[in-house]
Amino acid sequence: MKDKELEKQIDELLTRGVNEVIDKENLKKRLLNGEKLRIKLGIDPTSSNIHLGRAVSLLKLRDFQQLGHQIVLIIGDFTGVIGDTSDKESERPMLEQEAVNKNLETYLDQAGKLLDMSKVETHKNSEWLGKLTYNEISEQADIFSLAEFIARDNIKKRLDKGTRISLRELLYPLMQGYDSVMLKADLELGGTDQRFNLLAGREMQKKYKQHPQDVMMVNLIEGTDGRKMSSSWGNTINLMDDANSMFGKMMSMGDELIVKYFIHCTRVAMEEIVEIEKQMKEDALNPRDAKLRLAGEITEIYHGEELARTAREYFINTFSKKEIPTDILELIIEGEMKLTEVLVKSGNASSMGEARRKIEQGGVSIEDEKYLDPQFLVTKELDGKVLKIGKMGFVRIVFGI
What we know:
By secondary structure, the protein is α/β, with parallel strands linked by helices. Helices cover 47% and strands 14% of the residues.
């Protein structure tokens, strides 16, 4: 690769979808010099799905991998139990180890939709965090002051409101920082909400006589309801969503997010994205057409060109032409079942909580009649009826003998 081409590629790598890089000049110099860097990303399995918000960092890892760098992916089976509250305005409860273990079962497969996993170094951080003694934890905690912790925006807000903050929450940055020590990371990726934790890795490495890692913070993206994409809110577009659901969710996004999603969730050339934005501002391009292109690009990344094309046709027929598809999934029910259970069993909700939210928000209907009660019992009277979830989900209710 020619020097100018490499420099252009690295410049985009360090800026596209990126909010901040520390230390940017150092990182750029090492990349241009051809050093093979150890690049770290940690993901806590607090839900069973990796969503597009997390995939922003995974896409960035793929960019680094294509340049020949060593990707190190940590599945936080230990930190997932403890819980990170970097992006929360209330205390995140501790999770059961069994729930975390179940959630992480498909994480490597999901990451493999973007990364060549045969070249990725993977770890669970219980490998080392579960072995630390109180003495070692105390030495690590001595690096940071309480004032530094409570100066974080979300922690300060909770203190001002009188909301409880547990001492457990103070330990999470130490754990994430120690991960960097154990892996001898050269660069760590994370969202802007992870700033304190990412910088903790630098300080922790200094204590252990290592060169401090550089840090890259990517922007956070909004979910289907306009708030930050979060599994807690059920506003996610998941890597495991089927092609039709993924395409449909993308089409439900606000027009104001089109350009942001092109930048962060695709690898369409930046020059082309600038032109798309220009044409929409000049009313030369209908945002709906831009969104069709966007939904196709994203769906193709995770499902391939053929399924993306089929999903586009499915969307146009079911939404634009308001037709009910002929190939509807039939859900066989042996007896009475709550509406929330029907949504989960049919795959239209990943949990009872998400199913309840969809129902209460008016997203579930049967024969064009909305059902707002999550406790509603689906009985034989609805045998053969079509249940519609959101704009794109359909299931035909069939009662068994």
